[in-house]
Design a protein that fits this description.
Shape: globular
Order of helices and strands: EHEEEHEHEHEEHEEHEHHHHH
CATH class of the domain at 2-129 and 162-186 and 248-261: Alpha Beta
Oligomer: single chain
Number of helices: 11
CATH topology of the domain at 2-129 and 162-186 and 248-261: Rossmann fold
Strand order of the largest sheet: 3-2-1-4-5-6-9
Number of strands: 11
Distance between the termini: 40 Å
CATH architecture of the domain at 2-129 and 162-186 and 248-261: 3-Layer(aba) Sandwich
CATH superfamily of the domain at 2-129 and 162-186 and 248-261: NAD(P)-binding Rossmann-like Domain
Helix content: 25-40%
Largest sheet: 7 strands, parallel
Length: 276
């Protein structure tokens, strides 16, 4: 049995689909089982990573884990005590291995989870994706309402990765012991700015869209209403540092899955309806 946490999320749902195709037995953890809308073959259970002692681990041998909750070391110990052998952690490319002090709150949070798993005795694999292509969905309301996207750091570079590619690597890591102990930096196949991403969306929609730069302070207060201030600051600082700095593109998705990763244009075409 494989436990998938965050099973209704943008990556977790694809992990569930990928494991089903591999014939695996899946237990999907979600806060709202009634609204999960997962395939009938999946055992859907209620749970919350903020309460690791209550995780449904009976018969579970492997876990796809989100870095959620405030008790990473307790979570790792609970998994080990329950007989889980393998954990694949969704981390972030923000984590640095060459320093004890991570560059921001996002990296620090994920590094603590990585450290907890490294010390647990479990077999682990860390997935460190670059910016999710799905982050562009934050522009959808503006695109639906007009032809201008107002946001900071239009010239910030990244190598946006399709969530399905992250999930595909996660599935292989859950099933292939050769990936145990790997820290996998995951990117899309090309580096681009946020302005470039908007251009791809415009092309898919057949419209002329324009990126209008606004100060980071103009959005910080709104973002801080639904995310901790230190996380908001880390995100905005990361974007600021990416201005004028093309992202490094890796071949990890191809190396692990044997197929090329999806382009951002393909992601935009797949999500066209979200922007109309």
């Amino acid at each position: 049995m494989i436990l998938v946490t965050g099973a209704t999320g943008s990556v977790g749902r694809h992990v569930v689909d990928g494991l089903l195709k591999e014939g695996q037995m899946i237990r999907a953890l979600t806060r709202n089982p009634a609204g999960a809308q997962l395939p009938a073959a999946v055992e859907v259970v209620a749970g919350d990573l903020s309460r690791p002692s209550e995780l449904p681990l009976d018969g579970v041998r492997a876990v796809y884990l989100m870095a959620m909750g405030e008790h990473p070391h307790e979570t790792a110990q609970v998994l080990a005590d329950a007989g889980v052998t393998t954990v694949v952690l969704l981390s972030t490319s923000e984590v640095r291995d060459d320093t004890e002090h991570q560059p921001g709150a996002i990296a620090a949070r994920h590094a603590v989870f990585e450290n907890a798993l490294e010390r647990s005795g479990l077999l682990w694999t860390f997935l460190r994706p670059n910016e999710f292509a799905g982050n562009a969905l934050q522009w959808a309301p503006q695109i639906q309402a007009g032809d201008v996207v107002r946001a900071p750091y239009g010239d910030a570079w990244s190598a946006p990765i399709h969530e399905r590619d992250v999930a595909a690597v996660a599935v292989r890591a859950l099933l292939d012991e050769r990936l145990h102990g790997a820290k996998l930096l995951l990117t899309g196949p090309e580096t681009m700015t946020h302005r470039d991403q908007l251009h791809h969306i415009a092309t898919v929609l057949g419209r002329q869209l324009r990126f209008e730069e606004i100060p980071a302070a103009a959005v910080r207060e709104k973002m801080a209403a639904y995310a901790p201030a230190e996380i908001v600051d880390a995100l905005l600082n990361s974007l600021a540092e990416a201005v004028g700095e093309p992202a490094t593109v890796t071949t990890t998705v191809y190396d692990v899955t044997g197929r090329r990763p999806f382009t951002f244009h393909e992601w935009a075409a797949e999500h066209e309806g979200s922007f109309r």
